[in-house]
Design the sequence.
């Protein structure tokens, strides 16, 4: 919990005339759960996309684990150790659950490309074990041969988490992990995230649901109109008048 | 197992094929198209990228083989090797440019590239390719100074088709093949799982072009003549149709599709005369609408129906006892 694993320094990003991010500084400490909140259009998703290499910042630098992320593709960033959970669960729908987790397991063993045209996956015992373990970790071990598209939304989210977990990322980015979920699914997702957090993996969560944010986070950063307006522990942020004005106020009305 | 079944079917073709009305040599042609179709399925069936330009690889390879036979040596080995090398280089370049787009844009780009090769063969390269007449006057192909034709060609083609099918199945079962199927399923997730999607797509594209080049080269060895039709888009279209008829993504299906298409074109067309294309169109429509998985899906449904009936029979028998 001492050193920052991700250091966003003076990052700005504009789309045409719109300044989506203005001079954003953010440090995510190793092993912590860090939430990004803010009203719609505050720049949360842009910040997340800059972190994963989907967008290049106009100004400023992002350093992850001692490495500057510049002109790198999403797959390279992933291989450095940043995994992402999407707002809409991104899985391989036409493939079985086991194949869904085998893919990241092979990616972890072989890197971003390997022309192993003639390898029989059945002989890669280690890879198989990792893939099965990850499914067991999220509670999906009983349907390994089933196609992923038949899962419920909550279970798709679990599968996506399993895909990310196989890789043992240093940093996990979650973009509204409970969006569009029923209450009981949200609860179980929070439980799952807490369970994973005990392993010391750093997480950055973008979230709308305040109950999720306050029950999970070690630290919260509040964005509004592309700028950071507050940062601190859950209690500090909850009491900050600026935050109440910009965001929480609307929620409580 | 399926490889052995295929090997038996393919190698015994000269014995049973004439019994169903096939003329000598058509079996060779079917197997050449089967090679073409298996390779195409690695691209279309696995990654979901529909190319309308594979005639370019088939045709370029055919021309290279023809030119090698004519100007270098009648020995088929250097001719085949040169064809595969040239086609591979072209495929890397075309794939690099066309795979930047997906869906319909990719299809149209490949179609445009295919047409460029066709136009080039008939215009700027016509001194080499023989222009509209095709490349004629080729010597009889040889293998180490022995004339190589008819049955020899058939068994060479059959062995290469069996090897081609075996390799394609191995690719399908490998982690590499799994990544190709993941390209079709969700490219974004694959990229965000740390995999270089572009390299996987390009590999699939080039592998399918290599199959096309082997087929194109064999076509000239089978019949020492290069028709302009080989580079024409209708050859690409025929390939797509046979893949869909047989069942995209099944490897075996497109080979069945190839057999059906050539059998239809050469044997059944004799009974239907001018109308054979119309009937083929109807068959194609029927398959696309009612059996989107092609002949393979049809066979699976039939199998399930029979198994289901047998199951019902047992159940009622059990009940009566």
Sequence:
């Amino acid at each position: 919990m001492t050193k920052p694993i991700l250091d966003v320094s003076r990052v700005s990003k504009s789309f045409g005339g719109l300044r989506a991010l203005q001079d954003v500084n953010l440090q995510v400490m190793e092993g912590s759960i860090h939430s990004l909140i803010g009203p719609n259009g505050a720049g949360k998703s842009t910040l997340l996309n800059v972190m994963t290499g989907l967008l290049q910042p106009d100004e400023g630098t992002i350093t992850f684990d001692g490495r500057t992320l510049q002109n790198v593709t999403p797959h390279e960033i992933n291989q450095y150790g940043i995994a992402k959970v999407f707002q809409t669960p991104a899985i391989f729908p036409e493939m079985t659950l086991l194949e869904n987790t085998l893919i990241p397991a092979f990616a972890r063993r072989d890197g971003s490309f390997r022309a192993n045209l003639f390898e029989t996956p059945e002989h890669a015992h280690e890879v198989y074990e990792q893939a099965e373990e990850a499914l067991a970790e999220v509670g999906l071990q009983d349907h390994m041969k089933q196609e992923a598209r038949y899962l419920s939304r909550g279970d798709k989210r679990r599968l996506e988490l399993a895909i990310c977990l196989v890789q043992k990322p240093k940093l996990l980015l979650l973009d509204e992990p409970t969006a569009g979920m029923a209450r009981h699914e949200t609860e179980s997702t929070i439980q799952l995230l807490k369970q994973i957090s005990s392993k010391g993996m750093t997480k950055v969560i973008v979230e709308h649901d305040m109950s999720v944010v306050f029950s999970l986070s070690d630290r919260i950063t509040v964005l509004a109109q592309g700028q950071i307006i507050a940062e601190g522990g859950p209690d500090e942020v909850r009491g900050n008048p600026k935050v109440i004005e910009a965001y929480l106020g609307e929620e409580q009305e | 197992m399926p490889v052995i079944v295929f090997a038996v079917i393919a190698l015994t073709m000269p014995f049973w094929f004439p019994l169903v009305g096939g003329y000598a040599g058509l079996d060779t042609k079917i197997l050449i198209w089967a090679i073409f179709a298996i390779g195409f399925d690695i691209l279309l069936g696995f990654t979901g990228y529909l190319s309308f330009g594979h005639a370019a690889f088939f045709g370029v390879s055919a021309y290279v083989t023809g030119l090698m036979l004519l100007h270098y040596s009648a020995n088929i080995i250097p001719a085949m090797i040169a064809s595969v090398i040239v086609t591979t280089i072209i495929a890397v370049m075309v794939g690099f440019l066309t795979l930047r787009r997906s869906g319909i844009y990719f299809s149209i780009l490949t179609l445009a590239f295919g047409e460029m090769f066709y136009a080039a063969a008939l215009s700027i390269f016509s001194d080499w390719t023989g222009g509209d007449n095709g490349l004629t006057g080729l010597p009889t192909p040889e293998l180490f100074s022995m004339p190589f034709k008819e049955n020899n060609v058939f068994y060479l083609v059959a062995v290469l088709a069996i090897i081609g099918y075996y390799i394609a199945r191995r690719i399908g079962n490998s982690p590499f093949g799994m990544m190709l199927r993941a390209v079709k399923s969700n490219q974004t997730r694959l990229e965000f799982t740390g995999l270089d999607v572009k390299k996987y797509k390009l590999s699939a594209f080039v592998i399918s072009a290599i199959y096309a080049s082997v087929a194109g080269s064999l076509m000239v060895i089978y019949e020492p003549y290069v028709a302009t039709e080989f580079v024409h888009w209708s050859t690409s279209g025929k390939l797509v149709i046979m893949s869909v008829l047989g069942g995209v993504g099944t490897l075996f299906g497109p080979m069945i599709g190839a057999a059906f298409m050539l059998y239809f074109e050469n044997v059944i067309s004799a009974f239907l005369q001018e109308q054979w294309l119309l009937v083929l169109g109807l068959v194609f429509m029927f398959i696309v609408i009612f059996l989107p998985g092609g002949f393979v899906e049809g066979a699976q449904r039939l199998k399930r129906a029979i198994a289901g009936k047998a199951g019902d029979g047992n159940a009622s028998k059990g009940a009566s006892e």
Remarks:
- The domain at 1-72+205-253 of chain A is CATH 3.40.50.300 (Rossmann fold).
- The CA atoms of residues 103 and 180 of chain A lie 26 Å apart.
